[in-house]
Amino acid sequence: MVAYLDAAATTRVDPRVADVVLHWMTEEFGNAGSRTHEYGARAKKAVQQARAFIARTVSAKTEEVIFTSGATESNNIALLGLAPHGERTGRKHIITSAIEHKAVLEPLTHLRDARGFDVDFISPGPSGRITTDAVLERLRPDTLAVSLMHVNNETGVIQPVAELAEKLRATPTYLHVDAAQGYGKVPADLTAPIDLISISGHKIGGPKGVGALVTRRRGWDKAPLEPIMFGGGQERKLRPGTLAVPLIMGLYEAAKLFAESRKTWERQARAMRERILAALGTTRFHLNGDPEHSVPHILNISFDDLNAEALIVRLKDQVAVATGSACTSASYTPSHVLQAMGLDDAVAANGLRLSWFPPQTADFDPFPLAETIARMQPAAR
Ligand SMILES: Cc1ncc(COP(=O)(O)O)c(C=O)c1O
């Protein structure tokens, strides 16, 4: 069996979640928008329970959560949805980081190239962490929004989103956080006054194709989003389309199960990290990103004199790992994240990401893996 160490790309759906999804597909199959019968009413009530739960996990109100197809869609609704307000008010400056996922970089590049926005992409330095000061230094009267990810998907480095939310609170600048990797895992951060939070289901044992966008009020004010899609008006018109009740219920179940087991999860994830690092002691490797500010289940490493592509091919019968995020790993170009951290191309092109999701892969033994790597490394000169 090939061990699965690519949990940052996706996780296995928990069987208890799968049961819930199946139930809402086959037993209960009503359209949450049907107002004329019980089937619809039951589906709507269930969705409202799911919405209330997701809202509570980030200290938001139930009506501030909309369901989407995942973090990519949430990011697009948030960033493209804010743009018309910026255009109308002459606030066309946006601050983000150079280490964001493509699901933020691409909509923002679009706003820059097609709609004349001025977008600042901040690079973090070798720690992989953007500082609050680096963001605040770039703040201008016309800064519409800051978009900063919660946890980087390639390095696992946690960004200071809660601290930033407190600083931006007194300014008119809206804060958007792509929390695809951090949701549930570092829960306290997301209870901060962040205006817009993107959530994904499949990084916490939930199904692919479902997520949420939190649109938090600031007193009477809230991020003035305009719809980017039009249809039946569901989800406060921001995400029209028939609600994916089974997937939403799957997200709800996964979030509930994860919240109940998070402390154990964290302990197990940390233990696996220690085991992997101990095993790698026989190799010559660099850890990419600041371990003091990292989630416990993602490691990004480069090995001296070893090419990541060759390594992955050699390891493919032992372990499934990634070079960078799943979306860029098809091309084997240097990681834009490691490059933005100022690592040279030899290191940036050869980063290996190991990520795990306890109790999935609980029995993984990293020592044979480390042995293979050590054997591949030429003797130190
Ligand atoms: C940081 C980050 N943002 C966005 C996404 C996209 O999420 P989804 O698959 O839910 O669209 C991912 C998933 O890989 C991610 O890691």
From TrEMBL:
GO terms for molecular function: cysteine desulfurase activity; iron-sulfur cluster binding; metal ion binding. It comes from the Bacteria. Its EC number is 2.8.1.7. The keyword Transferase applies. Keywords: Iron, Iron-sulfur, Metal-binding, Pyridoxal phosphate, Transferase. Its cofactor is pyridoxal 5'-phosphate. Residues 4-354 form the Aminotransferase class V domain. InterPro entries: Aminotrans_V_dom, Aminotrans_V_PyrdxlP_BS, Cysteine_desulfurase_DndA, Cysteine_dSase, PyrdxlP-dep_Trfase, PyrdxlP-dep_Trfase_major, PyrdxlP-dep_Trfase_small. The keyword Transferase applies. It catalyses: (sulfur carrier)-H + L-cysteine = (sulfur carrier)-SH + L-alanine. Belongs to the class-V pyridoxal-phosphate-dependent aminotransferase family. NifS/IscS subfamily. This is cysteine desulfurase. It comes from Streptomyces curacoi.
